[in-house]
Design a protein that fits this description.
It is a single chain. This protein is mainly alpha-helical and 185 residues long. The protein has helices at residues 2-7, 40-46, 59-68, 72-100, 111-123, 133-148, 159-181; strands at residues 15-16, 23-24, 27-29, 37-39, 53-55. Helices cover 56% and strands 7% of the residues. The strands form 2 sheets. It has a 3-stranded antiparallel sheet. Helix 4 (72-100) crosses helix 6. The chain starts with a helix and ends with a helix. InterPro entries: Histone_AcTrfase_Rtt109/CBP, TAZ_dom_sf, Znf_TAZ, Znf_ZZ, Znf_ZZ_sf. It is an enzyme of class 2 (transferase). GO terms for molecular function: chromatin DNA binding; histone acetyltransferase activity; transcription coactivator activity; zinc ion binding.
Length: 185
């Protein structure tokens, strides 16, 4: 799940269909469900009970939008950025859920995977030298969470440490700005 999140910015595939597991550029996302996306084919054949939002931009839509005079590159960038933002939010929701979940056979999508990801750093041999992609992605998701977290104490792993680091960084930047404003002399 974290690898998929990381890879989204590197290729044009931004969604994985919940039904057929196919990675697609254009699809439909359900804002009301936890981690529920459909490719166009599954959306058309199976449908969904909630209203869904179209994300991505496939070749067919590019041609249509180009004819309408819209800036297709900018539209595609916005859609990819929004899909990435939604993916990060879903990852954070799954992280929060998995942290509290004690159900061994939890039915929520990706709960078991996230539990394994949270345990991974305890046993990772490559973490010490910064070479583990799973550890890096877990830290990245915890970082996104910590930037907006108001919880005290927060159950998300690393949140407290990251918040402290962010506070120290802001303080250093503030001190540098003040130091740069003072007259030299």
């Amino acid at each position: 799940m974290l690898v998929d999140l990381h890879d989204q910015g590197q290729d044009r595939c931004v969604l994985t269909c919940t039904e057929c597991k196919q990675r697609v550029e254009t699809g439909w996302h359900c804002p009301g469900c936890q981690d529920y996306d459909l490719c166009i084919n599954c959306y058309n054949t199976k449908g969904h009970t909630h209203e869904m939002v179209k994300l991505g931009l496939g070749p067919d839509e590019e041609a249509e939008e180009g004819q309408e005079g819209g800036n297709q590159g900018e539209m595609q960038f916005r859609r990819i950025r929004e899909a990435r933002r939604l993916s990060i939010l879903r990852c954070i929701q799954t992280l929060r859920h998995a942290r509290y979940c004690r159900d061994v056979s939890c039915s929520r999508t990706n709960c078991q995977k996230m539990k394994l990801v949270m345990l991974h750093p305890r046993y990772c041999q490559r973490q010490a030298n910064g070479g583990c992609p799973v550890c890096k992605q877990l830290i990245a998701v915890c970082y996104y969470h910590a930037k907006r977290c108001q919880g005290n104490p927060c159950p998300v792993p690393l949140c407290l440490n990251i918040k402290q680091t962010l506070r120290e960084r802001r303080l250093r930047l503030r001190q540098q700005r003040i130091g740069n404003r003072l007259p030299q002399g």
